[in-house]
Amino acid sequence: MIVNPTNDKYDIIILAGQSNASGCGIGPTTMLWSVDADLMMMKGAFLRDDGNEFERDAAKLRYSAEYKLAFADERHAEGYRRGVLALPFAKRYKEEFLEEGRKVLIVDTARGGTGFCSGHWTLDGGLYIRLVDMVESALLMNPENRVVALLWHQGEMDTNRSSNYTEEELYDVHYKNVSTLVKDVRARFGEIPFVCGGYVKEWSDRHPRAAITEKAQADVAKDLGKGAFCQGNDLLSNEVINGKEHFHFNRESIYILGNRYFDAYKKIVKGE
């Protein structure tokens, strides 16, 4: 349920995955963000948060069924403005595709420290069920609302917790999980483009098996059609800013990646 629904007509962008999707990039950027009344975001609160171990326990992850609309903006946490992957995408979508009389709504379903391996994003997992409920709630605000894109960034957790798999098994399991999610989203909300991306350079360099889950996602995007995979391993992390967080794209990098997502999306829409 949306506590502050509107009658505006929205093109809906689904943002899903883990922390690099939810917005963790810090540091300077050449792509400064400013609020735009035509770009909105839907979020839902979690009822409690006991830290990383809690986040990774799908059985304990509880969320409010009330969602709120606000102007799309960067996250403000720990004294930093934190860049969000979907913001440059939404801005360029407005400039190049948005029809007069409509607005953009980012439905933010991402959550840090989550994966398929822990049950968050399987079809019966809490985060996926929440994604469906949020999108359905957004569509109910106006019969002319429509879903136009699924932006996905996830896989670090599944890569980290794959030691019990051979490389072939890891590829097969991750391919199956991602393809199942995309197919179900499309069965519910239409044959929307699916765009995903690779991991940040410093993290990829320290995790050789990252290439396996990246390949699985890239193959899903290719095999299912109307999909694209965007490289990220040439982009830098927060580590160059604060000496830690080598697994999070910094603010400049996440906005470069968000623009790559849009470039890929544009090619899909134009049939290139």
Topology at a glance:
Layout: E1 9-17, H1 19-22, E2 39-46, H2 52-55, E3 63-71, E4 75-77, E5 80-82, H3 86-96, E6 102-108, H4 126-140, E7 146-153, H5 156-160, H6 167-189, E8 194-197, H7 201-206, H8 210-224, E9 227-230, H9 239-242, H10 251-269
Adjacency order of strands in the biggest sheet: 3-2-6-1-7-8-9
Order of helices and strands: EHEHEEEHEHEHHEHHEHH
Provide the helix percentage.
25-40%
Specify the number of helices: 10
Structural class: alpha/beta
Strand content: 15-25%
Total strands: 9
Low-confidence stretches: 50-54
How much is the average pLDDT?
A: 93
Gyration radius, in Å = 17 Å
What separation lies between the terminal Cα atoms?
38 Å
| Major beta-sheet overview | 7 strands, mixed
Summarize the structure in words:
By secondary structure, this protein is α/β, with parallel strands linked by helices. The chain has ten helices and nine strands. The strands form two sheets. The chain has a seven-stranded mixed beta sheet, sandwiched between helices. It has a two-stranded antiparallel sheet with strand order 4-5. It is globular and about 50 Å long. Mean pLDDT is 93; it is low at 50-54.
